[in-house]
Design a protein that fits this description.
By secondary structure, the chain is an alpha/beta fold. The protein has a single domain, classed as Rossmann fold (3-Layer(aba) Sandwich), CATH 3.40.50.150. The chain is 34% helix and 32% strand. It contains six helices and nine strands, in the order ααβαβαββαβββαββ. α1 packs parallel to α4. The model has no long low-confidence stretch (mean pLDDT 92).
Length: 211
């Protein structure tokens, strides 16, 4: 399956599922993750934040309420429409094309979106994220994982439409090994969130330029 087919399937799935997701409650552990990242970023006087894979914009709205200037991107047109309805600055864009933003940010936030990156492309996508970060910028990546595997999972949407979604999962050792080639890792953890896979939380910083 080509990357373009994978992206088309993801776009179709999330367009179908956007309405349901716009009314779903955020789990407490996800709220705790974004609060920890917000506290760190505000302590360092960060102000501009990019959310990758923003969905319906629940996290973007939280960061806006904390005082950040937020840009939200998602590959789903329906997700972006809902973001804009909620007064979020948003655009239809995927993580392969971040250079088209023509802008840099103090922080990048990605909650459960980069698990859709084609496995051989993860390092390339991480490099693209690095290019949109300002000096000393912070990057949060949260994904499900715990073992090294990938799957094309077809799950019924709320209206019983079966659309396959590509997922790539990593053991924490493999994930950290990939991430530290591009970023300095400040903190990482893996914990049980009562799902099929554990949750992996990694907070990173843009590497300092070598003189």
């Amino acid at each position: 399956m080509t990357v373009e087919t994978m992206k088309a399937n993801l776009r179709k799935y999330y367009d179908h599922d956007a309405k349901r997701r716009s009314t779903s409650d955020k789990q407490e552990w996800k709220c705790a993750e974004r609060m920890k990242f917000s506290d760190l970023a505000l302590k360092e006087h960060k102000s501009q934040l990019l959310e990758i894979g923003a969905g319906t914009g629940q996290d973007s709205m939280f960061f806006m309420e904390q005082g950040f200037e937020v840009m939200a991107i998602d590959l789903s047109a329906e997700m972006v429409r809902i973001c804009k309805e909620n007064k979020i600055k948003a655009m239809e864009l995927d993580f392969y094309n971040l250079s088209s933003l023509d802008k840099k940010f103090d922080c990048v936030w990605s909650m459960n979106s980069l698990l859709h990156v084609n496995r051989p492309d993860l390092s390339m996508v991480l490099n693209k994220i690095d290019t949109v970060l300002n000096e000393n910028g912070l990057f949060y990546m949260g994904v499900y994982g715990g073992e090294d595997t990938e799957t094309n999972y077809a799950h019924d949407t709320y209206d019983s439409v079966r659309i396959p979604r590509y997922f790539s999962f990593y053991s924490i050792e493999t994930l950290v090994g990939v991430l530290q080639k591009t970023f300095d890792i400040l903190h990482y953890d893996q914990y049980d969130v009562e799902r099929s896979y554990d949750f992996q939380s990694v907070t990173m910083r843009k590497k300092a330029m070598v003189a």
